[in-house]
Amino acid sequence: MIAQLVGALTLVYAGGFRVESLGALGHLDAASVPFTVLVIVTFLNASNMVDGADGLLGSVLLPPLVAIALVANAPLSWGAGMLAAVVSGFLLFNWPARSAARSRLRTFMGNGGVLFIAPFTAAILIQATGQDGPLLPGAAALLTLIPLADMATTCVRRIVHRVSPLSADRGHIHHRLLLAGLSPTQIAMIYLSVSAAATLTGVLLPKAGLDGFWLWTIAAVILTTATMFELWFSTRARVRLRAMTLDGLERPYADESPRRQPRRPSDDDDPLPDPLLKRTGTGG
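^ that's the sequence the OP posted. Answer follows.
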């Protein structure tokens, strides 16, 4: 976290990247620097949470970078285009492999890769949604919709289960899609499609004459809905697991017949964090 704060402060003071206005929501004025640092650090950790399976983070970041490269002027268009090329080249070796030959050529992003690409992407997004940028400030929330949704639901889930928001678990969006039976390739395609749709919404709606307030509204509705659903789901899961635990403690196994023995909770009962579950999540 200290290294992330140092990196964010470097972007702010050495690079001059600052969020000075939220468009329809008003100007930040004196709060510009702390808000920018908060935005950068939040985006770094949100990106790290998304990077839990092959092809996910690259699929999320590629559409916004391509869009900015197409609609911005130089030098921003060149910066976004070069970073989009880097992400594309990485995806060639990070896309979920289906063959042994492809598996031998696979590469992984890891924390080092996230901490390389996320600050550059954050700087490009700040510049693109700034005063002289081609996008409205509200578009940033749509261009980063998947990382924001994953972070919001993750923090709510961990708080409900009374564990640290920084701890790892197996309840991220991609984990649940895997449990639902989707393959890593299908999940990567879903992330790419959702990111592309959100990016097109953020870029094209203002051109259709809609005010920037609508961009914030759309993003807020989606994120609030996802967070409330996660709150409901996590609360039910915690109550269910607690009931299973109490049931097992109140009735000793030795005194029960084999047919009536209460089933002990296992790692397969729920992908959510709990003292009963082994914390083996990726991208936590």
